[in-house]
Amino acid sequence: MHPAISKNHVAVVTGAAAGIGFAIASRLAAEGMKVVMFDIDETALQHAINSINVRHPNVQLKAVVGDVTAESAQFQLFNTATDWGDVSLLINNVAVINAAGPWERNNNWRSVMEINFWAALALQQYFVPHLLKQGYHSAIVNLGSKEGITTPPGNAAYSVSKAAIKVLTEQLAHELRQTPDSLISAHLLVPGYTFTPMNYPGMNDSTEKPAAMWSADQVVDRMFAGMANDDFYIFCEDNEVSWPLDQLRLQWSADDMILNRPALSRWHPEYQQAFRQFVAERLEADKQELK
Questions:
Q1: Cα–Cα 20 to 30 A to 101, which of 55, 79, 86, 214?
Q2: C-alpha angle 259/263/264, rounded to 5°?
Q3: Residue 166 pLDDT more than 80?
Q4: Does the domain spanning 10-240 belong to CATH 3.40.190.10?
């Protein structure tokens, strides 16, 4: 177990009313942490808290309702957490996936960047100086996305926001590592295709999970294991795409720069066959090595 996951210490989880945020909050509460659950949807947040209380009696939970992009809400969240006890974990989970293309002029660009990136940065600005003053281990986990690494076409705003989170968290990890006496670690959690309201709009408590998706609890299992192993990049596969295939997609994306291929060559008509051949050959080679 990562030392930041400590009984009676305070954890802060944004976007905690549903999906991965809810699953993380539930698991941390079950581990004995005091969990501050933040969300903009008051009804959904209260339902989430009631659900956790039913499954785990005597857990310690506090709700903070607000818009994560609002400075007043950020300040309220920080004060609620720090007034409650020793804060050792910040989970920047909240995100939206509003679509916007690379030259579209609409409000989606601003809302996606403000929620997915600027809010996470603001909460780091509140919490990191406070955590550095403390004499115990703590951690910050930012929710990334494979779309922020391989950046598939179709939703530039979301990919840009998650690419920004990746770079921000990498920079955070480096600066914390270079800071004398720092006991803070930073981690980038990268979910795969996960059964959440973002990926499956309209789902409710009785909706059956599609076979291709991982559950949010599986993502939390991987987060706990990755943090315990002191991993920075905590990647999650799913039931549709294996981890070896994910690795090859990441490798191909990085090689676009190294080999001076066209941008997003995986989706370029002149390179699609080459990509399929690359994957087939590498997966076959991996099979041969295992024999």
A1: 214
A2: 100
A3: yes
A4: no
Structural domain boundaries of the chain? Answer: 10-240, 242-291
Q: Give the torsion through C-alpha atoms of 7, 115, 228, 287, to 10 deg.
A: 150
Confidence of residue 204 (pLDDT cuts 50, 70, 90): confident
Q: How many CA atoms lie within 13 A of 23 on its CB side?
A: 19
Residue 90: beta bridge partners? 12, 140
Is-contact 61 53, C-beta < 8 A? yes
Say how far apart CA 44 and CA 59 lie, in whole Å. 18
